[in-house]
Amino acid sequence: MAVNKMEKMTIIAAAEKEEAILQAIQGMQAIEIKDFFHSSVDSSYIEKHFSATLVEGDETQKKQFQTMLTEIQESLTFIERFSENTSKKKSFKRQIRTLSSLEKDFDVFKINRYLKEITSLKNRLTKIETIRKDLLSKENWLARWQYLDIIPKKSVLESSNILLGSINSANRMDFLSDLKKVSSIYVEEIYHSQNHVYYSLIYLKDQSSDVDEITARYSFNQFDYPYDILPKEAYQQNKEAIAALVMEEKQLKNDLTSYRDHLEELYLAEEMTYAYIHREDAKKHLLNTSYFFIMQGWIPIEEKRELATVLEDALPKDEVYISFDTPSADEIREDIPVKLKNNSIVAPFEMLTEMYSLPKYDEIDPTPIMTPFYMVFFGMMVADIGYGLLMLVGAFLALKLMVLPRGMKRFADFFLILSFPTIIWGFIYGSFFGAALPKILFGVQLPFPILSTTEDVNTILILSVIFGFIQLLTGLMVNGIELTKRKRYLDSIGESFAWQGLLIGILIVVLGMLLFQNDGLVTAGIIVAVISALSIVIVPIIQTKSKVKGLAKGLYGLYGLTGYIGDLVSYTRLMALGISGGSIAAAFNMLVAFMPPAARFTVGILLIIALHALNLFLSLLSAYVHGARLQYVEFFGKFYTGGGRAFKPLKTEEKYMNIEKKSKVKE
Asked: Could you list the residue ranges that cross the membrane (predicted)?
């Protein structure tokens, strides 16, 4: 499997059929719309003969949908936040739908009515909140003056004044002492807080200057009482008003609760509104006239039959013209998008390739070649039967019991597949949640562990390097084959086959000296290595006009051997991470085993679950990251360039549901 083959699609139809065709294409979620005026099509004929009927893009409809989307999202947030959660209605579950069924169920008038009613409730609650804040503020200062037993407005005399206010508690004694010096003044302490004292002063008007001087000296904060009733009565009325607001707010929230029954409709409306917005965006890429429109796009070749089917369902066959063209060399180089196509085992690993860079349209897809290596490496780094079973069960249940978003589903498939090599390597290392497998079971001698993480460390280290060596040779082989296909024969020798020969020659020398102790094998290895090294040096000399520069380039290229040594060393992390994860799990088991029996079977159970959950998370994260790093740095660098543009079909947002083609969904 490789990069999906694409063709350029052109559709011409009457202007009034535009919406139906776009809806059908969006439901397929498999066609990328091209910008007509930035494509390779010569549009001069249309501009010359139909310039008077060309229609400019109109953003009005899109803005209406965007406004509606905002209102829906705000209403959903408002309902979920403020409504009384007394409804026993089950939460909304992700669904699999077709776009046509979703659009059929979308009642714009009903949704607008819901939005209008919810907005009204929202405005009333906002108003209540504002009034309540004001009443709470008034309650705060009325509580301090409620013991005042007169109504200042009704107690004013011709010869006296009433002054209400507060001072800092630290100045209380000095303030009272100075007031005693004023004859015929009545002072009453109304309220005493931690920092302030509140007073009522009654004095003769001809003593105003003396009182003003004292109050100014102590920063007396004057208070004007606004009510025509006693403070205690005003305080009580204020509390009653707050209580009434609380009851009204509760009633509004109860009214709002009824809209929880319509949450599913609002979720579907939000999904559909997103679809309309994406569709309106696509219209900007079409050529529109008063009579017809022209659409161009990229379509995978296996989707052509599906496209014909959905268009026949949308409108009569004789009302639409459609053609398909093979992409030109310029389009392949500059414009064509890339969509990967692999079987169900390899497809989840495409996300690793996408994280690095998609291949160019005419480049090999590295995913199928990378997948078996990544599976072996991941399993070798986690290497525990128990952890693998948790991955298997968790991913399997998630896939079977839930409709997952596409990205999460791919992750679930990814870890479901990786659980198998994890379990296999767990048997090889003889590890089950960090505990060693039994040597004898039911009288049967078991062969586990095949490799011990404590006694066979050197063997595991050598095995890690061997796996790395195989992957490097595979990368060089792929590079050589690809260069040969492009008829770059000398490059295939100098950049691939010669390096393979050099590495294999060195391997033969090492095996002949250390393992077989065979001089003939050593000699053969030296001959292969020397011939390969000479090829690496000679090829640049042949390719370069200046032989001196070619020689220098060849010798510098041969220096790259040190890079291969560094690459092989990188693969030792397979041994390090596999042993470290198992050792940490075993240490956790020992920690709980040392606990007293009473603690071991109470707190110890919770502790061991938490510790193994942490180790599982760290092991999976390390294996995921370091496994990807080995592919990106050591493997991809040998043959893969990337730089492809991702395929972006006209589709829906899929925020709350997965949209599938009609052929895949039973309605």
From this structure: 373-399, 411-437, 457-476, 497-516, 522-542, 601-625
